[in-house]
Write a structure and sequence with these properties.
two-stranded antiparallel sheet, 7 strands, alpha+beta, Alpha-Beta Plaits
């Protein structure tokens, strides 16, 4: 399964994602694709996100049963702890620095 969540994304990117994925809530897209197609879709997110932010989550054989990647400024950032991907929060003052 593949899930992409967009915040503050341009309408054209949201429309582009709606071609491949089902938009179950505003900015939340769901589908099932191969790694190749997932990477292709993420490429469109990278190109069209502009000032927004995004997270992509997919099922895998990782310890948690899924993996994810993020793009854009957000207080929640991925952190690797001994091979386990977790999320940490940046302090308010560091938000603009990435």
């Amino acid at each position: 399964m593949l899930v992409i969540v967009l915040e503050n994304a341009p309408p054209r990117l949201r429309g582009r994602l709606a071609v491949w994925l089902l938009e179950v809530r505003a900015g939340v897209y769901v589908g099932t694709f191969s790694k190749r197609v997932r990477e292709h879709i993420w490429g469109h997110v990278e190109e069209g996100l502009e000032g927004g932010n995004a997270v992509m989550l997919w099922g895998s054989t990782a310890e948690a049963g899924f993996e994810f990647k993020t793009l854009g400024a957000n207080r929640r950032i991925p952190a690797d702890f001994d091979g386990v991907q977790l999320v940490r929060f940046m302090p308010e003052a560091e938000q603009g620095v990435l």
